[in-house]
Amino acid sequence: MTPVSNSTATTPDTASFAALGVPPRLVKVLTAGGITAPFPIQADTLPDSLSGRDVLGRGKTGSGKTLAFAIPMVARLAEGTTAGAGRPRGLILAPTRELATQITAVVQPMAAALGLTVTTIFGGVPQGRQASALRGGVDIVVACPGRLEDLMRQRLVRLDRVEISVLDEADHMADLGFLPGVTRILTATPTGGQRLLFSATLDNGVDKLVKRFLDQPVMHSVDEATSHVSAMTHHIFEVSGQDSKKGVVFALASGRGRRILFMRTKHQARKLAKQLTDAGIPSVDLHGNLSQGARDRNLLAFSSGKARVLVATDVAARGVHVDDVELVVHVDPPTEHKAYLHRSGRTARAGSAGDVVTLTLPEQRRDMSQLLRKAAIKATPIKVTSDSEQLKALVGEPADLVAPPAVSNVPNRTAKAPGSSRSGGSRRPARPTANGSAPYEGRGRGQSARSEGGRAENGRSRGHTGGGGSRRTSTTSRTGSAR
């Protein structure tokens, strides 16, 4: 393949989708969804991708790249022939099942308007419904690499008729060790097909994919890989110890808007979500040990507003796209700068403003300073407690407390032995106090510090098939940005 070329063309900020060459029927679908003006990465890439060029797009999460590849894929396939059984004409690869599901939610309305079918393929669920959709003939497959390769080995899907391929978040694919599988999958597609690759960075082998599979690609870079959204404000809050951290965490969680709290381990994410809920702050957790059904229910609760707080491990840093998240809190600071940027990218999406808070202990100062330098983030550490004015100004008016769901026919586990000064009984939500009386606990002495690994598409799931038929797709997270 030939070297990458940089586009020198400029697109006016006021360019419309129609002016960029988007077919009228797709413009109508976009307008019906409230999308009338393209984002920069869409305005930059669409003229090339709609003309059939291979494109390398570099842009941060939330920059609008899903539509940047969905539009040219649907437009191209609408002019072709009908898909055969197990032989799709369009392929989109994504690193996580959450991202794959949400990409499908963006692609499906446009595809349906032009008479195309879409299905989603990922692991962790029975393959029956996915295989059935493929046998029925589907135009576009949105897939995670592992399950797609499984189906290829079973001869349930062949990629020899794929006309256009998309690799989304290629750098995250590399981080999860998926590039060997991605290479085998792309090798199975025709060499003359159009290919679009989107990645924040070109390291860890992504550059090799570009050189091998993209033919004279045009590169469009909306921003640098380490850049952060201008509307995103970063705060470094230093706490004196675990007791102080308890109250600060609960104070940050008590606001009225959506917020995501990141933990290092699955155990701590599950524990904190329960403690917040018990304290009157409706919360759900998201991590690799959840079944697909539980993940879908928790994401729906968060996106619908039933739960204001999502407590997550890094499995959600890339896979969850929900608009109007006003605050991201790194309760446990990440170990490297890429994770910081990906976690933080859950807020300040689609041009909205957002805040990012990192909680640090005194012994973490040096590591935090190095991480911020690598991420090109400038923020001055501030010592806080749960009643600090800086904290109150950031959180704003606390939301009303909500009584936790009643549990029936369960023995009272809070009852104490005779002589105890604390007795069992009904629990009342209580606001955290400055002395750390909130029920959040820091890492205990015996607790494992092992973080959740790169658990992407292969969860332990029973019964929920999620992948959908060729005409029905999961829309659990459709409140995520369609941009």
TrEMBL record:
SUPFAM superfamilies cross-referenced by the UniProt entry: P-loop containing nucleoside triphosphate hydrolases
SMART domains reported for this sequence: DEXDc, HELICc
Sequence ranges of Low complexity compositional bias: 417-427, 471-483
Cross-referenced PROSITE patterns: HELICASE_ATP_BIND_1, HELICASE_CTER, Q_MOTIF
Protein name, per record: Superfamily II DNA/RNA helicase
CDD domains hit by this protein: DEADc, SF2_C_DEAD
Domain Helicase C-terminal: 231-395
InterPro entries (alphabetical): DEAD/DEAH_box_helicase_dom, DEAD/DEAH_RhlB, DEAD_box_RNA_helicase, Helicase_ATP-bd, Helicase_C-like, P-loop_NTPase, RNA_helicase_DEAD_Q_motif
Residue window of motif Q motif: 15-43
GO cellular component, one term: cytosol
Pfam families: DEAD, Helicase_C
Residues covered by region (Disordered): 402-483
